[in-house]
Amino acid sequence: MNLCTTLFEGAAEAALDRHVALASWPLPEPALAYFPDARSALSDRDLGAGTFTGSDAMPDHIPVLLDRCVELLAPALTRTAADGSGAVLVDATLGAGGHTEKFLTEFPGLRVIGLDRDPNALRIAGERLSPFGDRVMLVRTRYDGIKGVLADSGYRADKVDGVLFDLGVSSMQLDRTDRGFSYASDAPLDMRMDPDAPLTAADVVNTYDERTLARLLREFGEERFASRIAAQIARRRADRPFSTTGELVELLYQAIPAPARRTGGHPAKRTFQALRIAVNGELDSLRDALPAALDVLANGGRIVVMAYQSLEDRIVKNQFSAATASRTPPGLPVELPGHEPEFVALTRGAERAAAEEIALNPRSASVRLRALEKVGGHL
């Protein structure tokens, strides 16, 4: 595990990364004919996000529900001092560092631990957050590694004041065409958030058996034509393995009936979501990360989670419901001392972005925000 306050790999590597970020493989004309909106269509979370051009400027990335996140977490971060002195916030999904930058600016005494498995995100965030010096520590890890990070960095695992999750694929990952997350450009069929991880989307498409592929597309992508798509993938790869996103897009056109292609957003959206989730183990990681995050909160600490698709939000909803439930055995007429809920909800169900924010930042249209405060446990 790499613990550092800044993460720069040198001018030469940064220049190389900027060059790669500019690389583009336009979809073959047949695929563009199939999906005429493919040049600009992105996922629900990233519609309207600016493109990372590779310049020294930060990506044109607008953090979702930024002011609401500050409003919800501020009471926990300022319990000791109004400027956040003595408080620790874990940004479990650092990305470009937009949320963390806001918190560090608003609370000059606050310390932030930022987690991300993507070294490119850490490098960009490190540049953005460098003015804050040792008030911020960046760590390359999945967010389910939160307890290990705290132990390695000397923080007590029950003394964190706030935790923030902004789930899903980031704008930077979509904008770098070589990563293979987007169906907007032809690129290697990769989709790894951690470029050092062993499993790629090409591995899944080319080696998973037809039944497993269909289940994956149905469960992770909620794709109603999962069996049909899996069967066509199996037939096609027997002749020639898939290597690019454009090849997969062409097959999806052939597999999905024409009436279905005209409704419900981009026809490749659900398959790409399913492959990305499978490659990165996102749902399993989230199931492990949420209880760990709840455990590390001090009494009075708060957690905010933003999800962008129903599978993630369902996990958050279920775990938050369990955390806010009474531990008194059912049927007893009174609450047993010490069995009260350990957490209280700060939102009524899931909050949505206002119309004004969606107009300015379309990627916020699908967000679902939930938040809790810890009211029992360690002091």
TrEMBL record:
GO molecular function, one term: rRNA (cytosine-N4-)-methyltransferase activity
Keywords: Cytoplasm, Methyltransferase, rRNA processing, S-adenosyl-L-methionine, Transferase
InterPro entries: RsmH, SAM-dep_MeTrfase_MraW_recog, SAM-dependent_MTases_sf
Residues that bind S-adenosyl-L-methionine: 97-99, 116, 143, 166, 173
Keyword Calcium attached: no
Biological-process GO terms, alphabetical: rRNA base methylation
Localization (cell): Cytoplasm
Pfam families per UniProt: Methyltransf_5
EC number(s) per entry: 2.1.1.199
HAMAP family: 16SrRNA_methyltr_H
UniProt function note: Specifically methylates the N4 position of cytidine in position 1402 (C1402) of 16S rRNA.
Protein name: Ribosomal RNA small subunit methyltransferase H
Organism: Mycolicibacterium rhodesiae (strain NBB3)
Species lineage: Bacteria, Bacillati, Actinomycetota, Actinomycetes, Mycobacteriales
Gene name per UniProt: rsmH
